[in-house]
Model the fold of this input.
Amino acid sequence: MNASNALQLPERLTEKQFHDIQFNSNQSYFITVTNTSFQVYKSDPLELRSKYTFHQPLIPLHAFNVEQDFSLSRQSQKSCFPDPIAGGNGHGNGIAKARMLSNSNYLTLVTPHECIVWDDYRSRPIFLFDFGDVSVVNATLTKHYIIIALERQLLIYTMLPTPTLVVKYETFLNESGVMDIRLGDSAIIAFPARSKGQIQVVTLTEDGTLSTQLLKSHKSSLRTIAISPSGRYLASASELGTIIRVHDIKTSSLVNEFRRGADPAVITSMKFSPNDTKLAVVSDKATLHIFKVGDSGETKGNKHHKLHNLSFLPHYFQSTWSFVSKNLSHDNDLVTDTAVVGWSDSETIVVIWEVKAIWEKWHLQWISKDDTDSKGKWVLLKGGWKTLAKEGGVVGV
Done:
């Protein structure tokens, strides 16, 4: 659809069309989730690649009860049926979250009390972990491991030949499933540590070697964390949503401290650009902020208060602000929408809305009179938009 066309939305949009939207680790694909279905899209150009709706129970290849010590015992004939009213264990098991292993056909599906490892090529569940009454809040995969987040623990299981608990970490209360992972020769996993506002970073090699470190990032509970594509940086925001901090994972040192705004906000999504040089942040105030990341030379262009050189003023005046931002709200928004952000290249941002079910593309562009104009500015220009169908596909194009 042409970017110049006005964005026409239904008159009343009050409920989320998708319960969850997640990009894969390299942001080339994203998954949308409803109670009983999921859809896999290529990020840019937008293209539906796969979808599945649960119409009847399915029997996984391997089903396990998770015991009190988080060891596993096999189940027989355990059905897998994410249903919002009466799931396999009677809790009401609509799909809450889904994550994709890199560009592969393997996914994790999270229901309120289960984790399912799904083979999208064969359209069938491979593993099912039944946690009984314990809440499952997130899950993801590496080539060799399954990582499952509970409200107060993070569990790492081997995948083959039979899932086995490798390690358990105690966490601060993590009801929203805060977690991120970077895949490579070694997987880097970041999640809340035991203490409020602190981050546990685990590096996991293919041979099972584990190394851990602790980042003291915020005084308030964590809301969002993001690992850069190279694995060098980790960005975090607390529930207050005013300050974003970027740490160097290897040295644990603070690299950048950014201010989103003065008023509290919910940071709904945060992603690094493919080359690690920029950080995109979007909040429930429907504003997209882009920050330059790195040392002082690399962050030239980020904004500062005109009084920032006066050290005797409160810390607020020394804050670093985004080098470009844009309010993305639409004229007929009736409720607060939730946006998820990703990058398709180092100058192009993809934004997806859970209530409006809208995919948007934004381009970073330098506007100046000529090539010698040093007083130009960065702007965000819309490159296109499309509407996503709730059960998969693109409508209106």
